[in-house]
Amino acid sequence: LSPQEHGLDFQRLLDASAYKERYRQDMIRWGEEKRGADPGFFCRMAVEGAAQPVVSDARRLSDVQWFRDIYGDAVQTVRVVATEETRKRRNWVFVAGVDDAESECGLDQGVAFDWVITNDGDRRSLDEQLETLLRSLRNRL
């Protein structure tokens, strides 16, 4: 919604480009204003019209709590981690005021994740972890 309201190119905001970085802090600020007025705003939008919602990018404790309140035990939380070294190899560069904001690290504490997947570039390990996760989810259906 923020890109639509501000005339931004949504597709360009999805990649790791200078375009995205130019608008990132403004988008974060806009999102904070929306959450301040209505903590469930983005959560409801994420599942709108979905028969079996899968949300791939919760950012805050309030998001996780909203989903748990609405969907109960059906909620499975998955955290994907990579070392800082791996992230730097993938061209990540820390930006103060952005990468240490709640929108980026709001779930670094306070959530007992059901699953933690390590993605440090070992394809075989990643595939094994994901297969285990998928088997477990299928067994819950």
UniProtKB/TrEMBL annotation:
One Pfam family linked to the record: P-mevalo_kinase
GO molecular function: ATP binding; phosphomevalonate kinase activity
EC number of this enzyme: 2.7.4.2
Subcellular localization(s) per the UniProt record: Cytoplasm, Cytosol
GO (cellular component) term, any one: cytosol
Predominant location: cytoplasm
Membrane-crossing residue ranges in chain numbering: none
GO biological process: cholesterol biosynthetic process; isopentenyl diphosphate biosynthetic process, mevalonate pathway
Keyword presence, rRNA-binding: no
Superkingdom of origin organism: Eukaryota
Keyword tags: ATP-binding, Cholesterol biosynthesis, Cholesterol metabolism, Cytoplasm, Kinase, Lipid biosynthesis, Lipid metabolism, Nucleotide-binding, Steroid biosynthesis, Steroid metabolism, Sterol biosynthesis, Sterol metabolism, Transferase
Keyword DNA repair: no
Coiled coil: none
UniProt pathway annotation: Isoprenoid biosynthesis; isopentenyl diphosphate biosynthesis via mevalonate pathway; isopentenyl diphosphate from (R)-mevalonate: step 2/3
Protein name per UniProt: Phosphomevalonate kinase
Origin species: Aramus guarauna
Lineage of source species: Eukaryota, Metazoa, Chordata, Craniata, Vertebrata
